[in-house]
Write a structure and sequence with these properties.
The chain has about 400 residues and is mainly alpha-helical. The protein is built from 16 helices and 4 strands.
């Protein structure tokens, strides 16, 4: 019992540090792995309670492994798979095995909220302080001369930061509007507004659209959100001149800048990869190695393209169309868990978790059209953690049929 509690604390620590200090998160997961081994020895068995559909998760990673021989750099792809796939699978397994009570589930959400507040606050400070990421690197200066920089905070680039902030906004929406106690609601509202403010400073147009869609999706689940959602969406405009934000937002529908043109070119190249490798893909983590063969736009071998800027095309290219289908089944399956929990939970806290998770999955589906931030280790780890949390929530509200105990 004590070991189980310590393992849970390691998991919560990892959730907190993933966007802030990934090395600390990895250390916490490493400690958790050692303690899991000790806990299994003490119990005489590996503790696990999974739904019957768990084979879908296993199948997804099996298909990823099958794709590896197609990579032109097999050793590098294999190393990438062993490190990343193992981490994602282990995080998922930890959540469904060691998050048992409502308090423990809420603790994960609070850890993520605290991390989001610190990440967003630092992003805002960074932007108005030293300027964040240089506009020369991330913005078409000729098209947007008034944008001097973009916030990156503790993450790798503004788009990855924006993806994390959209996750945070989605999760906080549940706690703001699901009828929890006022102090909790006020804290969630603070994180929500801070995240929205920092999101504007990333100038990530796809993430802006996802955030608006998240607010509308939450509105559809709980109709009285409309006025609050509009107010929350407009609040970040106080940080900047309105014209700058509006110009950047409208450009998302015009496709006239280099960022948009590059995306269109990447999608065409990735579609060609899928046509050539429809079943087993080009290999897990091999996109950057294969892209030069299909590059008709950049034509510079020194420029490394890590992903296709489209979740659906990228996954299909790397591990095949069947791999994409299994991934989408997994995503919709966990979406269903959260939606069922929203409809059946009696506790305000459980409803808050469910509403936030529904919004997060919706944002992932929509944001995947214009970007693929799941290539990032931290964002992907959080996605699998929250996916597992949706199953734990579904299990806690009583929908426990079809659970297999090991």
């Amino acid at each position: 019992m004590l070991l189980g509690k310590i393992i849970y604390l390691c998991l919560a620590e990892a959730a907190f540090f993933l966007p802030l200090l990934p090395e600390a998160a990895v250390r916490a997961l490493s400690v958790a792995a050692i303690l899991v081994a000790a806990d299994s020895v003490a119990a005489g068995r590996v503790k696990l309670a999974v739904p019957r559909q768990f084979w879908l998760l296993v199948l997804f990673f099996v298909l990823a492994a099958v794709s590896l021989p197609n990579s032109p750099r097999y050793a590098e792809s294999l190393y990438n798979f062993k490190v990343l796939a193992a981490q994602y699978f282990f995080i998922y397994w930890l959540v469904i095995s060691y998050v048992r009570t409502r308090r423990e589930l809420y603790g994960l959400f609070f850890a993520l909220a605290a991390a989001a507040f610190l990440t967003a606050s630092y992003g805002i400070y960074q932007y108005f302080g030293d300027g964040g990421a240089s506009a020369a690197e991330w913005v078409d200066a000729a098209r947007f001369p008034s944008i001097r920089a973009r916030a990156v905070s503790t993450l790798v680039n503004p788009n990855i930061l924006a993806s994390f902030l959209v996750m945070a906004i989605a999760l906080c929406l549940g706690w703001v509007f699901a009828g929890v106690r006022l102090p909790v609601r006020a804290g969630a509202a603070l994180v929500l507004l801070t995240s929205l403010g920092c999101l504007v400073l990333t100038f990530s147009r796809g993430a802006w659209l996802s955030a608006v869609a998240v607010l509308l999706a939450a509105d559809a689940l709980k109709s009285r959100l409309r006025a609050s959602a509009v107010a929350a969406a407009l609040m970040p405009l106080v940080f900047l001149r309105e014209a700058v934000v509006v110009e950047r937002f409208v450009s998302a529908f015009q496709g006239a800048d280099t960022s948009s043109l590059l995306r269109f070119a990447l999608w065409e190249s990735t579609a060609a990869m899928i046509r050539d490798h429809p079943f087993t893909g080009i290999g897990w983590g091999a996109y950057r190695f294969v892209y030069p063969k299909y590059d008709f736009y950049i034509k510079n071998p020194d420029v490394i393209i890590y992903h296709a800027h489209n979740m659906y095309l990228h996954i299909a290219a790397e591990i095949g169309l069947l791999g994409l289908a299994v991934f989408l089944l997994l995503l919709f399956w966990h979406f269903y868990f959260a939606l069922r929990a929203w409809k059946t939970a009696a506790s305000a806290g459980q409803k808050a978790c469910a509403l936030g998770l529904c919004a997060m999955f919706f944002a992932t589906l929509l944001g995947g059209i214009t970007d693929y931030t799941l290539f990032n280790r931290e964002i992907s780890s959080l996605f699998w953690l929250l996916s597992a949390a949706s199953f734990v929530l579904w299990r806690q509200v009583g929908q426990s049929g079809g659970i297999i105990e090991y």
